[in-house]
Amino acid sequence: MRGILAAFAALLIATPASAQDGKALWPQRQVTIVVPFAAGGSADLIGRILQQQLQAKTGVPIVVENKSGAGGSIGAGFVAKAPADGYTLLIGTVSTNAINAFLYSRLNFDVGRDLQAISLLVRFPNLLFVNPRIAARTVPELIAYLKAHPGQLNYGSSGLGTSSHLSVVMFELATGTKMTHIPFRSTAEEVNNMIGGQLDLAIDSMTTTWPFAQAGSVRALAVTTPQRAAAAPDLPTIGETLPGYEATAWQGLFAPAGTPRPIIDAIAAQLDHIWKSPDVIKALQAVGAEPVTTTPDEFTAYATSERAKWGEVVKAAGVKLE
After folding, report:
1. Which terminus of the chain faces fewer neighbouring Cβ atoms within 10 Å, N or C?
2. Cα–Cα distances in Å, from 243 out to 111, 198, 233, 237, 239?
3. Using one digit for the tens of pLDDT, what is the confidence trace for 266-303?
C-alpha cells in the first residue's frame, strides 16, 4: 500500500493542469466516477488517477464516490440505474462485470443489458505460487505432482467466489486435478498461512504476492495473463503449458446503457489520450498494472467473452451467494 500511495503522489506532482476551453461534447459539468469498493484498493487507485487526469485535462470537476458492498455489485447497480447521460461512470472489474452475475442470486440489474462498456483500463496479473516444500518448480511439474497426489493438496483464496478462488477452479478444470479449498479473509492472511506451512498453493494478485516470491517465502511458478509480466519477464505464463488459460484481474470504465454513442466515443477518446501519457503509464506500472485502452466495441466483446468464461467456472465451483 505504501508503494501505491507513493506512485499516486508522484503522479499528482508530475501532472500539469491543462484545462480545455469547455466547448467539448463531453464533459460540460461535474462527472461522478463510482468505485464499487472501499477506498484504498486497486479500483480506488485507478479511479482517482482517472479523476485527477480528467479534471486537469477538461477543467470540469470530477468526483470519485466509493459505493462498496456485495462484491462490488452495490456500486455497479447504482450506475446501472443512473441517468444515461455520461455523467455517472463505473470503474468495473472482472468481479463486478463478469463474475458476480453468476455468483449472486439476487442482483437487481443485468450487467450485460444495463451497463455500456467504454474502455478497458488495466490488467493486473495474478501469480501462481506454492509452498516451497512442494516438489514442483514449473507448471508441468506441478500438474504431475497434483496427479500423483490426488486430493491431497489444498489451496487458498481471499474469499469464496473471488477471482483468486475461481482462478484455481479454472486451473483444476484445465488439468483434471482436484484440491481442497481453504478461503481466507484477505490475500495477506492467505500468504501468511502459506508461509506458516498450512497452505500448499494459491493464485492471487501479483501486486501483493510478488515481494514474498522475491524473498523466497513462497515459490512463484507462473502468471495468469496471456503475456509474461513486465515485472518478471523470466516467469512463464500458465497459458504456455495450458493453451487458452487466462485469469486476468481487469478493470475498465462503464456507463449506464443507453448513453448516446457520441458521448461514449468522446469519453473513450479522452481515456485513450490520458492513458498514453508517460506519467500515467509509469504510475500504473509501479503498482503492477498493465495499462491498456480499447474501443467501446472491443471492450464490449471482451466483457461478453469474460462473462461467458467465468459463468462456466462459477457453475463448476458450485458457489452461490445471496
Report:
1. C
2. 28, 31, 18, 10, 5
3. 999 999 999 999 999 998 888 778 899 999 999 999 99
pLDDT less than 50: residues of the chain: 1, 4, 12-23
Which DSSP letter does residue 59 get?
-
Q: Can you give the pTM of this predicted structure?
A: 0.84
CA distance 118 to 21: 24
In DSSP terms, which residues pair with 254 in a beta bridge? 90, 117
Q: CA-CA distance, 67 to 126, in Å (whole number)?
A: 25
Nearest to 15 by CA among 23, 5, 7, 24: 7
Give the pLDDT of residue 11: 56
CB of 291 within 8 A of CB of 250? no
| DSSP assignments along 118-150, one per residue | EEEEEEE-EEEEE-TTSS-SSHHHHHHHHHHST
Place of cell 478493470: 251
| Count of beta carbons in the 10 Å neighbourhood of residue 2 | 6
Sequence-distant (6+) residues with CB within 8 A of 244 are: none
3-class DSSP state for residue 180?
strand
